[in-house]
């Protein structure tokens, strides 16, 4: 029991760490929350909506994303896109990620 | 109001009072609509209340959903917590010390020593100190909880000290029996100054008043106080002798610790006697009649001086008590180690 629980916790922590990078990487073109969620899921990363939506708002508050409301199909949708600041920071994040992957690959090989 | 509207409203009710709350509700509604549409198209079913119920169940209770948006689940967050602890320690220490001193003054001056009333004042005083400490704690928590919510992040981050930590600051723990030379030297100097003033220049302990070209001197202490001078001298002298001996030997021994305990106990006893002697302060309402400003309330000034003097004496008692306790603790630990 305890083992399953710690495994779940580790997986949760790992996933939480990559969601920011995953979301930023996919927002080069504008997307609304649900479409991003589906896109991440199609690419194989299942993200809980309770995690994604607040994260998008936080990234916007940090200036890494900008958002705009658009009226589509009689329904308003909030579209997010990476900001200039986010574009500057994304390559650095990618580099960090590549570093982590290569270190961990060596370690786990 | 349909089910989705009611759900969104319920989430909104549970959101913290933030700007952007309406925006969150609007985005949530839009998302739920998208999900329903998606669900209807993939399953080929018609959108109905059953489908809404199914979706909302999966989405989670309004409280849980609202909680994911709450950026501040802390009353006092981890960034402010160290400062909260620091302020709390300082305020509670100062508050309790001041209240203990005031209680001591009341107990020693207002009552026959150790009588029922004395016990009563101590009992009530301790109760009052506990409730004052709890009230102070509550107020500090309130202030920090408000700061946590109104201070911009930049200001909270600015509170962090970025001083480089030096491992050398982890000084070796000193030998508990080593004497502290600086303290001893300071003590000797101050005791000498005290002895000199009391014996050679008692006339500087008072106030000079200049009026119409004449100088009047108001002595601070009455004759009742000067009767204690030989006793004070004896204690001061013993203190200096002990300090010089300690400076030379550099180590505390059980003999010097016992001597220290006796000296501190004697000075506490003497201070208590002085504190309980009436009319020790030389200022009287009469002595203020020479004041150039006739509006000065002699009666009030006298009271202020009397109270200040009592507070000074109580501080002397507390300091001597702490010294005594330190010496006693050292003695006990010493015996414990040799066993």
Briefly characterize the structure.
The complex is a heterodimer of chains A (109) and B (339). With 109 residues, chain A is of the alpha+beta class. Chain A is built from four helices and three strands.
Structure notes:
The complex is a heterodimer of chains A (109) and B (339). Chain A is α+β, with helices and mostly antiparallel strands. Chain A has a single domain (2-108), classed as Orthogonal Bundle (Arc Repressor Mutant, subunit A), CATH 1.10.10.10. Chain A is built from 4 helices and 3 strands; from the N terminus they run αβααββα. Chain A has helices at residues 2-26, 33-42, 49-61, 84-108; strands at 31-32, 65-72, 75-82. Chain A has a 3-stranded antiparallel beta sheet with strand order 1-3-2. The longest helix of chain A has 25 residues, at 2-26. The model of chain A has no long low-confidence stretch (mean pLDDT 90). The termini of chain B are far apart. The mean pLDDT of chain B is 80. Chain B has 3 domains: 3-69, no CATH class; 81-161; 181-338, no CATH class. Chain A binds chain B through residues 32-35, 38, 49-51, 53-54, 57-58, 69, 75-78, and chain B through 20, 23-24, 26-28, 30-31, 33-35, 38, 59-60, 64-65, 68-69, 71.
């Amino acid at each position: 029991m305890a083992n399953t629980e710690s495994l779940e916790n580790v997986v949760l922590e790992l996933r939480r760490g990559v969601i920011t990078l995953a979301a930023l990487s996919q927002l080069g073109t504008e997307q609304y929350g649900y479409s991003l969620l589906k896109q991440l899921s199609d690419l194989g990363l299942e993200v809980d909506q309770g995690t994604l939506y607040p994260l998008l708002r936080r990234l916007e508050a940090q200036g890494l994303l900008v958002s705009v409301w658009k009226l589509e199909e009689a329904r308003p949708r909030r579209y997010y896109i990476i900001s200039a600041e986010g574009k500057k920071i994304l390559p650095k994040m990618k580099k960090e990620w590549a570093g982590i992957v290569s270190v961990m690959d060596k370690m786990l090989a | 109001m349909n089910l989705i509207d009611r759900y969104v409203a319920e989430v909104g009710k549970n959101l913290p009072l933030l700007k952007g709350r309406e925006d969150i509700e609007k985005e949530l509604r839009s998302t739920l609509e998208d999900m329903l549409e998606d669900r209807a198209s993939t399953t080929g079913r018609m959108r109905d209340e059953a489908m809404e119920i199914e979706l909302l169940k999966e989405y989670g209770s309004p409280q849980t959903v609202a909680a994911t948006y709450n950026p501040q689940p802390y009353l006092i967050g981890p960034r402010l917590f160290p400062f909260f602890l620091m302020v709390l320690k300082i305020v509670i220490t100062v508050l309790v010390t001041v209240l203990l001193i005031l209680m001591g003054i009341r107990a020693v001056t207002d009552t026959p020593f150790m009588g029922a009333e004395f016990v009563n004042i101590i009992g009530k005083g301790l109760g009052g100190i506990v409730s004052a400490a709890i009230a102070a704690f509550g107020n500090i928590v309130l202030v920090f909880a408000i700061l946590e919510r109104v201070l911009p992040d930049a200001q909270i981050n600015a509170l962090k000290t970025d001083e480089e930590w030096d491992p050398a600051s982890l000084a070796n723990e000193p030998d508990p029996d080593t004497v502290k030379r600086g303290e001893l030297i300071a003590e000797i100097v101050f005791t000498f100054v005290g002895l000199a003033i009391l014996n050679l220049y008692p006339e500087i302990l008072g106030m000079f008043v200049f009026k119409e070209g004449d100088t009047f001197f108001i002595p601070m202490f009455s004759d009742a106080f000067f009767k204690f001078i030989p006793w004070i001298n004896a204690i001061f002298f013993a203190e200096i002798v002990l300090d010089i001996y300690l400076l030379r030997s550099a180590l505390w021994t059980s003999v010097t610790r016992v001597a220290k305990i006796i000296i501190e106990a004697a000075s506490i006893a003497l201070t208590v006697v002085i504190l309980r002697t009436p009319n020790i302060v030389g200022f009287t309402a009469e002595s203020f009649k020479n004041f150039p400003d006739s509006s000065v309330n002699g009666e009030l000034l006298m009271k202020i001086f009397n109270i200040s003097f009592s507070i000074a004496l109580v501080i002397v008692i507390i300091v001597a008590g702490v010294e005594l306790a330190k010496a006693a603790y050292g003695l006990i630990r010493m015996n414990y180690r040799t066993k």
